[in-house]
Amino acid sequence: MSKAKNSDFNDAIELMFFAYRDFIADPDVILEAHGFGRAHHRVLHFVAGNPGISIADLLDILRVTKQSLARVLRDLIDADYIEQRIGAHDRRKRLLHLTAKGSALHSKLIAPQEKRFNQVLGAIGPQAFEQWKKTMRLVINSEDRENVDKLIERSRDARTETAN
Amino acid sequence: MSKAKNSDFNDAIELMFFAYRDFIADPDVILEAHGFGRAHHRVLHFVAGNPGISIADLLDILRVTKQSLARVLRDLIDADYIEQRIGAHDRRKRLLHLTAKGSALHSKLIAPQEKRFNQVLGAIGPQAFEQWKKTMRLVINSEDRENVDKLIERSRDARTETAN
DNA sequence: AATTTATGTCAACAACACTGACCCTTTTTG
DNA sequence: CAAAAAGGGTCAGTGTTGTTGACATAAATT
Asked: What are the residue boundaries of the HTH marR-type domain, all occurrences included (chains A, B) (predicted)?
């Protein structure tokens, strides 16, 4: 009776597709106005959440090759959205930080996404929203969940530190 | 006290990114073995859920240009995964159907995604799973929600009809 | 001193999206 | 019935974002 039907999972699959499609389309208009694409957005986002991150660690999060990262990172550095600082302990490392300009763009990019989730929260309430987050966490590969936990925590710290 | 903090939404944004990334990576191995990519997967998936769909309607769901669709659709037709039938009422239309071969591949592709959600369901229970679906539905643009409802229902019908 | 690590860069290539133009067939409209 | 519109196919060119492979440099480690 309470057995799971396959069609339940098909619902879930469709919902993942359409929800992600609308969610990711939000910032596209802003990006295009700046001559950037989604790849630039991803870099901007994870540098924002992990100030001082190294190239190697960023590659690990994005799961792309360094040649692929290099192209968009060069765009962002040349246009003064991201700056590199040579590591204090290890002078081989290039630690990435948003500039004021980069931080401003990042805020603009996440604004529509925050608005979207704010409306969801308003519709379902804080408890259901927390439950949704727990569920989404379980959709992530189990071996990556703790890493994502750390990323989210670090990102939270980065926000409070800059009094954002 | 219970005011929404922006960091709550940042959590949600990160979770969307990582959950979708792992979710969509599931079928990649199978696709590569067949010489197909994610674009082929999307076409296969929506033809499976909407048997007899026209080119125009499929373009509407995928939100790509017909030139972009044509390339992958040609691959799938040439390799006998999808067949076109001339519309009975309107002979201009080319109605798309999966062949037996296409249906088999589609089943293989969704299997790991169904498994993923089955594990989520097992962890949180059917009630929380239903709540998650309602929440995901609210992440979709409000003007598209009813269309997605219809798509999901049609997809459910397509499954029961073929006794899948 | 030799090796490893972190990063950068050049070159070629592939998937997948786009625009613009043009074609054919079939249906609808005036 | 002729003209226009709708559905679909195709050619040509372009851009973004990913890939491999090879090689270079500076700094750290062994």
From this structure: 6-157
